[in-house]
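chain below, 298 aa
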Amino acid sequence: MKIKQFMIFQFLFFLSYRTIAQEDSLMDILNKDASGKIRKEPSTAAFFATRIINGQSVENPGKGILQFCIGHRFDAFNAENNNIFYNFFGLDAATIRLGFDYGINNRLTASVGRSSLQKTYDGAFKYKLLRQTKERMLVTVVLYTNLAVRTDNKSDENRKITFTDRLVYSNQLLIARKFNKNFSLQLSPTYIHRNVVATVQEQNDVFAIGFGSRYKIFKMVSFNAEYFYLLPGNTADNFSNSFAFGFDIETGGHVFQLNFTNSAGLIESQFIPMTNGPWKKMLRFGFSISRVFSVHRK
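prediction:
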């Protein structure tokens, strides 16, 4: 099943490679600092937004720019035990995350957020190590690290659950190349550590490799695809690989992301190791909205 998912992803991935020249506009805003000046970077706008779909992209806000994000993932509308019309195609239940991303400088971003799934708070840093250039550097490389803590009423009859037991650490190296004005490709090696796991079906240490792509259909519309492959282990044996596809629609200072995915979670420690069904049986509709603000005077 996972091999079939991977083949389908690769088909969608490389189908998007045929492109025509267009210009980006959303990232023109993200690439400005608080003074309104465009950051002088060799290559920008590999993606419309700071997330491809569920996972992070190599994009980040400029210095002094604050981004507010709202993410929704509804219930699976094709699950075997669901009444599609009774649950109105999954819209009666939703996972929601509110988040803020702030550009400390043109390379470093700090983020905070809160998800309804397991009542989770998270904080993250994103640092651009290398930037793609036309002559010397073929790719953009970004380091991303996230710390999450669940605050729901988790209990264990055999032991007391402490604060540190609830912590999950996610670390990624985001490697992307913008091949032309329309097509971008990203690889995301990922390591997740959970201090405590509930069952033997889970692992404290989880490794995965993410694949993501963007194909710009029109000037302000792109098709995105994303797939996270769990490396062999108990987690891979008992959970599913995260798969997502959808469209980004840019409208100046906003970007709307409409997508379908088999993952309920909206942060790496949730959708990578905790996706509980293949997309053929657990497909969810979701959307995200991003808005950027300049919080410093020009």
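The helical segments are 2-15, 26-30, 234-238, 268-271. Residues 72 and 247 are 15 Å apart (CA to CA).
thats it, cya
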